[in-house]
Amino acid sequence: MTPPLALSTVPAGAKAPPASGANCNCSSPQGAALSLDAKLQARIAQHPCYSEDAHHHYARMHVAVAPACNIQCNYCNRKYDCANESRPGVVSELLTPEEAAHKTLVIGGKIPQLTVLGIAGPGDPLANPEKTFRTFELIAQEAPDIKLCLSTNGLMLPDYIDRIKALNIDHVTLTINMVDPEIGVKIYPWIHWRRKRIKGLEASRILHQRQMESLDLLREADILCKVNSVMIPGINDHHLPEVNRVIREKGAFLHNIMPLISAPEHGTYFGLNGQRGPTPKELKALQDECADNQMKMMRHCRQCRADAVGLLGEDRSQEFTKDKFMEMAPEYNPTVRQVVQAGIEEKKAQLAAQKAQHRPQVKVPASPKILVAVATKGGGIVNQHFGHAKEFQIYEVDANDVSFVGHRKIDHYCQSGYGEEGTLAGIIATLSDCAGVLTSKIGSCPQAELKKAGLQVLEDYDSIDSLARRFYSQYLETKSA
Ligand code: CLF
Ligand code: SF4
Description:
Helix content is 33%, strand content 18%. It has two domains: 46-323, Aldolase class I (TIM Barrel), CATH 3.20.20; 362-480, 2-Layer Sandwich (Nucleotidyltransferase, domain 5), CATH 3.30.420. It has helices at 38-44, 97-110, 129-142, 157-166, 181-184, 200-220, 240-249, 269-272, 280-291, 322-325, 334-358, 421-430, 444-452, 464-480, and strands at 59-62, 71-72, 114-119, 147-152, 171-175, 190-193, 196-199, 224-231, 254-259, 297-298, 309-310, 370-374, 381-382, 391-397, 402-409, 414-415, 418-419, 436-439, 456-459, 462-463. A hairpin with a 2-residue loop joins strand 16 and strand 17 (418-419). The strands form five sheets. The protein has an eight-stranded mixed beta sheet with strand order 10-9-8-5-4-3-1-11. It has a five-stranded mixed beta sheet with strand order 15-14-12-18-19, with helices on both faces. It has a three-stranded antiparallel beta sheet with strand order 2-6-7. Residues 49, 60, 62, 88, 116, 118, 120, 149, 151, 171, 173, 256, 301-304, 312 line the site of FE(8)-S(7) cluster (CLF).
């Protein structure tokens, strides 16, 4: 049996890391302390979900080829669709495997930084095995430089592990919300299992057993497994540290605790019954608690649609609707893609070197921590106008490090060229625990309002690391003045 893919020191015989991957780490602030071996770094360096560093630079896309599901989660309703809604299970149009392969080649040509093709629904990919594997086969043949990624509830994974291995699928996500079937009963009303619908505790037990088996099989197959867990206050929030412990012991690579998205208009059981999602503070506290268990935590998840396209913080799916992409001839050129990606790797290496230079040689003990909100369009740079931001990336900064800890969605301030006062109040409330905002440009009015609310602003175009450090020094100076 292969040992768990846990955090480790560099094993004997490991290949040298690629230049760019030298500083690649996942998203926990503790990540700096948890070193990944060189082989693992290389495997995640271009995957925007498995590497926080990569998500600033590389894009993924999902193809919606899998409509059916074999279980019911109380937070899911796949009938709901809205082009503005970004959450799992939401999709505008279903594709055949051939349409999906065509779409991938078109987008792989137009967005050369696209490195990963995922199948994540809108149902469960392994409840639609023929469509899912046919799609992967076509893409593996026609675009072998694109990594294949699969996201599943795990119920059917043990039946398909050999096909997953044969297709060289290196990244698999399992959604695991409980390791106690009594808790599972409150999340899953039924499963479809061996041609029967099974309800209650028995359903929950079967799902749990199959998910544990899936973790074991993925570890034995040396496939990188990320576990997604939906945080549902009052139902599994206090239980997720236990989930975290179990998946860590079973060799999962990364844990992504996501907030429940719940609103009556989505028509889900939880939405209709007033079940709330966690606040950003509650989510961060739980992620921090699990990170203390020495588990790498993903904090940059955007809870994507099943047809999402682009960098994780942007969604370009509307540019590639079926009527549009079927008219486009693929201009997929592996050489051009390689050149673009080599440029990205160079840029990543520069940013990493810069970051290493700024980090103090000797760790400063007990330095105060602050949160800053960053307006960025990607690339690891503060390069977005305050008024154009639809989300802020949140970084925790102290004298030693600048660490990504999450993102906060907002209504963008600048609507049709004018600032919206009501929106600004919402932004200030969303960022109330931050010390300030880093942006490439901001108008004097919003800046004055932010200041009144206790948020300092630093306006410049620079790397996030460098500007955050500058902000930190200025902030401490003003506090001590
Ligand atoms: Fe897609 Fe998922 Fe693969 Fe990423 S998403 S199948 S691992 S390529 Fe990523 Fe989207 Fe979060 Fe999923 S941000 S919802 S974790
Ligand atoms: Fe929906 Fe996914 Fe749950 Fe199926 S497994 S019910 S698609 S959230």
